[in-house]
Amino acid sequence: MRNIFLVLCSFLVISIGNTFAQRSQVVVMIDAGHGGKDVGHETSISGHQNEKHLNLKIAKFLGGYIEKYLSNVKVVYTRTDDSSVSLDARVDKANNAKVDYFLSIHCNGNENKNVRGTESHVHSMSSTKSVKLARMIEKQFSSRAGRRSRGVKDKNDLQHSLQVLKFTEMTSVLVECGFITNAREANYLNTTYGQEIIASAVFRAFRGFIVQQHPNISFKKTAGSSATTDANARYGIQIASSKEWIDDEDSRWKSLEVKRIKLNTTSAYKYIYIVGNYASRSEAKAKLTGIREKGFKDAFVTKR
Ligand SMILES: [Zn+2]
Which of 8, 55, 205, 215 has the smallest number of Cβ neighbours within 10 A? Predict the structure, then answer.
């Protein structure tokens, strides 16, 4: 009798222990859309890549930022190379691994080449957490990454469900990073620079979201963290990009002092032009209106 009592007691202790055990990390699955034979949206612009390649690059930048700048977040992927993964397999992978978050990365396409902008999709507007994360991503796109946001959409907007959102059992958002059928957006998405900006916008939104959702987990990196890099960061305003080298003194720059940066990219747009050198993003932002008024309507703040 005494033995049974002891067994029961220890069982109780273990159960209580589990219930009150604090979670020590979160797991995010990053899903690069399409892959293999499924190329996603196809480009008609020479030198540009089809959707599946852009998705994978952005997905890897995103995962890289999470691993580099956050503690206690485990990153897993549905694919890390150009392999075919079915939609069922993606859903099963996420559900079986019981990940906390599922971020699917896509680029959009449209017959109308003028259509451009980012979208974040959720299965339903009643999935509160997914909607919240999606809104944070779109906010980062429009306020920090200089993108045009087309907002948060659900199955009713699309008039059909997206399988990876419908059947995954966790907070899930599918991000459309821009239209590869719009020449200007396609140029941006095909640069390493553009891919990094898009990935860092999603990263910042994700970081903001998990910090709110898990107050008991510390996501701060300790030694050698991002804080040092951020402290040394300088900011500028990107006013243009070009295929050909353009002289610093060119009249197109309207007497602004530009810094030309050659991108390490396979895309046609090899050069970007940045003005200003500021210690903080807000300082750069304060100058942005003036630059836009000079005729550089798409100018945006960026790290130098
Ligand atoms: Zn897609």
Answer: 215
